[in-house]
Amino acid sequence: MKNVLFVGYGPSAVQAAKDLVGSLPADYRIVAITSNEGYWPPAALRAAVVPGWEDKPLACVDAAFPQDGRHVMLKMTNVVELRKNSVVVDKAHPDLGFEADEIPFEYCVLAMGSKYPYPCRPHPSSSFSQTLDDLRQTQSEVSRSQQILIIGGGPVGIEFAGEVASHYGKGTKEITLVHSRERLLDQSGWKEKLGRSLRGQLEGYGVRVVVRRKVVDAPEKTGRIEGGREFHLDNGEAIKADFVFLATGNAPNSDLVASFDSSVLNDSKHIKVNSAFQVEGYEHIFAMGDVTDVKEGKQYAHAKNHGSIVASNILALIQSPSASTASLKSYKPGSNLILVSVGPWGGAGQIFGFVPGAWFSALVKSRSLFVSDFKKLYNVA
Ligand SMILES: Cc1cc2nc3c(=O)[nH]c(=O)nc-3n(C[C@H](O)[C@H](O)[C@H](O)COP(=O)(O)OP(=O)(O)OC[C@H]3O[C@@H](n4cnc5c(N)ncnc54)[C@H](O)[C@@H]3O)c2cc1C
């Protein structure tokens, strides 16, 4: 068997594997390696706040391939080293025919996504039931806390503030969101009206929004601080909190590639790919999703589209190994779109220059957080 090997099994990889599974020649198989089960970041923040939502961002990966077929899923397994024609994993799987920890590939697809702190991603190597327990624990910590400090006013900080404020209601908890920039979502490309609408909705729930300030003594991780303590802003102001949520950004999960060939990483550590998603200088190694340097927002809506193009290009190369990159399917970066929820009934976004508000956001995203799309993607009910 020749292996088409996936590192990571997030939305981009699932889409690519789905497109490949019925089309690969009989002497090829998919080997998917993932350190967790399926996880859905768009629903993770509500799952960390609202009891009953804890299972919504979780899907078993067991249903990925027919059990009696030739394709293999190695879950709860980390790829620890990338080589030119193989990877090394942190555990062998003799029961699945992998006696050694080195697994060769004909084609490799790097889909390691982004590094975010929990709960935007599960804790490393957490099983389904461990992550359920972690989310229930966070719900209970939030419920027991009175003074909630959110550090970072990007989409993640805004959505977490919205979940707590809308679930517990105005005035029940003291929620402060501290943002270092001039206004919420002030990166180039987003209209001022978008940040204004989101800020207005949070303030409507009683959230205090502090802009142009940094917390100088932020804790290392999200969680409860028993008894509470004071945190300080760069103007000296003290804010007391018994729960802190860190939303200060993310980074590409590209360490594997840094130790393989650091020249294929750009300054922000994203993997450099051509328009066919081949890693610069390696025609048989592809990368897709959040970990790449494609010039567009890091969103699953785009990542899924990468998956379909990668599947099609791997099939083309299998049929014609000397095919040039020019003859492969080419990807055009997706448009700049965003929808940010503020609890299940609020939110705002920017779509082709329009800035829809709470009604539209609730209809399209905030109520469902696309959970049924996620479960469908992973073939679970
Ligand atoms: C709070 C939040 C809300 C969001 N809301 C939206 C939204 O509304 N709409 C939208 O389009 N996008 C949204 N996103 C972004 C979206 O979640 C990502 O763009 C998407 O998950 C990227 O998919 P991916 O396949 O690139 O990687 P990921 O989803 O990051 O998956 C990568 C997988 O690879 C595994 N992995 C990594 N390294 C290894 C290794 N060495 N060995 C084995 N496995 C490994 C990881 O465990 C993970 O399972 C949101 C993100 C967050 C945090």
UniProtKB/TrEMBL annotation:
Transmembrane segments annotated in the record for this chain: none
Cellular compartments per GO CC: cytoplasm
InterPro entries in the cross-refs: FAD/NAD-bd_sf, FAD/NAD-binding_dom
A GO molecular function held by the record: flavin adenine dinucleotide binding
Gene3D superfamilies hit by this protein: 3.50.50.100
Domain FAD/NAD(P)-binding: 3-306
UniProt keywords, alphabetically: FAD, Flavoprotein, Oxidoreductase
Family: Belongs to the FAD-dependent oxidoreductase family.
Protein known as: FAD/NAD(P)-binding domain-containing protein
Native source species: Rhodotorula toruloides (Yeast)
